[in-house]
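Morning, I've got a small favour to ask if you have a moment. I owe you a coffee for this, so here goes:
>
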Amino acid sequence: MRRLFGRAPLLGVVIPAWGVEDYLDDCVRSLLAQTHRRWEAVIVDDGSSDRTGEIADEWARRDTRITVVHSVNGGLGAARNLGVQHVRGDHLAFLDSDDVLPPTAYADLVGALADSGSDFATGSIVRWEGDQLVEPPWMRRLHRPLRGARIEDRPEILGDVFAWNKVWRRSFWDEAGLTWPEGTRYEDQPTTTRSFLDATFDVLDEVVYHWRIRPGSITQTRASSVQDLADRWETKRTSLASVRAHGSVEVEQVFVDRVLAGDLWRYLLLVPGCTPEWWRLLRSGVLELWGTRTLVGSGLPPVHRLAGWLVAEDRRAEVTSLMEWVATLDGPVPRVQDVATGAWRLSIPHTVLDETTVAPEALALRDHEV
């Protein structure tokens, strides 16, 4: 009854925009098509050199709910923080300017908060893969419905690191002192981590976001740069510090094993051809965050757990051989069963790696991996 006759909450939407002249129209149209009609948006033109600023100004002339702030280029985190200063609302959302929203996205998220009283809500996403929209299996797994949850109810939700599939109560955002890190890449994770740790939250299985991964937006060239890897480690370091300060051993274990290690396989693939400086930084980060336990206990796929163990042991040549060999396979890495114990492990050709020099746990398979 409250939602039928009461006034809908005002949602403030922050849209950082840089170099998106080919995408901004679609983004704004998806906002205009929302079934939740009571919103205001600020587009932050982050020093674009193309027509992004002009397009944003045109939308502001066409719809009074949209305003534009033009700023010097400061990066995504700075643009989002600037937008927060200029947008009003009972609730707060962030929309990247090259993505689009399904029509009921904000109605679903705002409606969940109205029913639950939680501090923020998060929904699932789909991403463009060619001409198709695909929901990543891990997102589907994380977004089994929950209402009024705390992080102890589902610690693995910390793997939902995105800024743009969520709606926060503005009062919670301000009281928690939340901001986005500035001057670094991968700025979503520290802030979403703090949100999950400090808040009550709703988890929706509805898809609330269409994520466009633009060609060249995440490239091997960028990922193989020392600065990119340094930013990645800083993001992980900051997020882990927040988890440890929270004080739950269970949450920390899930975070380190399942979340913190989750994207590291991308970097292991880059070891062939990496510079000595990049290798040293990779190894130092693995040792800092996983210590003597290495990545053997993590949720990485088996061959990447092995590669992580080799990184910790400073065996660069063998990581290179392993990753190059894996790239030639048409299917999974071969498995073999120990006749005496019945245990299963990876089977690596001797020309790639001398298994007798590897700790058994680094080759071992778990029951669900056989």
